[in-house]
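Hello support,

Our group uses your service weekly, and this is the first time we've seen a run hang past the timeout. The protein is non-specific serine/threonine protein kinase. I'm not sure whether the cause is the sequence or the server load. Input pasted verbatim:
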Amino acid sequence: MVSSCWCWRESRILSFAAEEQKVHPDPHRDPDVDQLRRFSLEELKLATDYFSNENILGRGGFGKVYKGRLEDGSIVAVKRLENEPTPDGELQFQTTTGIINRAVHRNVLRLRGFCMTTSEKLLVYPYMANGSVASHLRERPPSQPALDWPTRKRVALGSARGLSYLHVHCNPKVIHRDVKAANILLNEEFEAVVGDFGLAKLMDYNDSHVITDVCGTAGHIAPEYLYAGICSEKTDVYGYGIMLLELITGQRAVDLAWIAAEDDLLLLDWVKVLLRENSLEALVDPDLQGNYIEAEMKQLIQIALLCTRGSHLYRSKISEVMRMLGGYGLSERWDEWQEMESSDQELGQGFQPFHFTGDSTENLPPIELSGPR
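Update from on-call engineer: The timeout came from a worker crash unrelated to the input. Re-ran successfully.
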């Protein structure tokens, strides 16, 4: 388990950092989908007790996920895609299978195999014993302890490592496009694993961005992507910043937006005001019961705000985010942003954040919204 050690540098900079592990794909591994294990439909029916409702782990935009036990006794998660013979469904299956098979990193969900027949499309993943970050933040039973502060810090670091691998070490680059707490899974050691590549986009390593159809989850979509279809690594960084706010507050972005709207503020402006006024108690998840280090919390909020800057031109890359989590450069980046804000230099350089106060998509362009899958 990668543990993150927070320590002080120059009395005010924290460190999330454990030594960064560089994990590279096996150069001898054939990336073709055909090299994955191909399960028979009967195997997966038996594993899931014929897709029993009692084995449903979750459901989302493309289908349901079931817990299963293979013949060798191993526990898996079986994602059963909706059986509608649409071009989008076929493309999603091919995209997901190909992308996940390319990615080999401890903080990225591996694909064990798949099943494809004329009537069924299924993906088989390792079972993540501790579910998703979102389930711990918002769906835990009273008997289950809340995610403590050290675990939330590890989630922040581990998910950043997974995204950094997808952006930097994969060729073509992988843009996840749906970064949120519901898509960050937790293994047995509560290590973060980036999952669900159903909306992922491949991008040439030399391209700075692509123009593409908008998809994702309301509240997690970067402004430049929502309004102009500009998709890049910075799209994921924005979603990551919103995910950090989920970790900090325990709440969904849409719910936070409702609270901010009561003060006639956009979500991110509301967060800035609370940080400036040192009103952390209005922002921090009450489930933490005050068991966190205030300076560390403030700095994680700063990182979240730097990740969600309205202009993607000024938004950090995820590799820089990792350095800030490790205690390098955060103070300088924050001071630089404050100077830009005070002189209005960033105004007009990007898109205004989308003002949302609910799950409604009636005012959005045609997009595909995803739920936790």
